[in-house]
């Protein structure tokens, strides 16, 4: 089952803020550089790579010397607007070291419900991939909470990354978090929790085992990752949830090593 992962031609990688920012609030340059190296190498191998990156608020807080995440949504939007530009600047620099062009794409999750917008997004992403450019996608935090009848929720790139997989018919979503995978219980509160290596179906019992976010920079927590996995399985695609501490782990995942949690139907 795992040895088929290397056949994935089009891969979406989602990285959480906790992999981009150290717990003390400073930017994890080594991690970002390793991510740029790894994704560029995958592209050089002939794969099509799309990055969904969180981090705008964390990087914005760093830039504005905030030690606490602001509580009001408009303050968070403002910090995200500052941080998004900085985030892209850092990515642009690191990817350029390896000769790789990147592009910023800001989306809202409800784009999938509007046929014309949806087609525009697909056209842009397909064209970027044809041009050998790695799209770096984030939720458009300025728009996402403005439109009250929309279903968007602030800061949830887990769902967005699964939607991007759906829109681009990608073969694999690699979700990099601050935890080794999905456990039988939240490992930060239960030391006995055990890691699932392979999940073929998302049952209500599994959802009950998923808790909230792990750090002040965390986003949706495990529940949101399982919801994303459900969408991926609905597309007959696969998802691996793994630790993003060392993004080179992506090479090992694609090589079929038993790393993180694989969500994939068991085709007999
Ligand atoms: P990210 O920044 O990568 O989006 P989150 O903080 O949103 O990360 O989610 C990861 C966190 O979810 C973990 O650090 C862990 O504390 C928490 N968590 C809750 N339940 C589980 C579980 N069953 N298995 C693994 N992690 C869990």
How is this structure best described in words?
Keywords: Amino-acid biosynthesis, ATP-binding, Cytoplasm, Kinase, Nucleotide-binding, Proline biosynthesis, Transferase. It is an enzyme of class 2 (transferase). This is Glutamate 5-kinase. It is found in: Cytoplasm. Catalyzes the transfer of a phosphate group to glutamate to form L-glutamate 5-phosphate. It is a single chain. The chain has 268 residues and is of the alpha/beta class. It has a single domain (2-263), classed as Acetylglutamate kinase-like (Carbamate kinase, 3-Layer(aba) Sandwich), CATH 3.40.1160.10. It is 41% helix and 15% strand. The chain contains 10 helices and 8 strands. The protein has helices spanning 17-20, 29-44, 56-63, 73-97, 115-130, 141-144, 157-168, 204-208, 221-234, 249-254; strands spanning 10-15, 48-53, 102-107, 134-139, 172-177, 198-199, 238-243, 261-263. The chain has an 8-stranded mixed β-sheet, with helices on both faces. α5 links the parallel β3 and β4 (134-139). α2 (29-44) crosses α4 (73-97). The chain is globular. It starts with 9 loop residues before the first strand and ends in a 5-residue tail after the last strand. The model is unreliable at 146-154 (pLDDT under 50). The structure holds adenosine-5'-diphosphate (ADP).
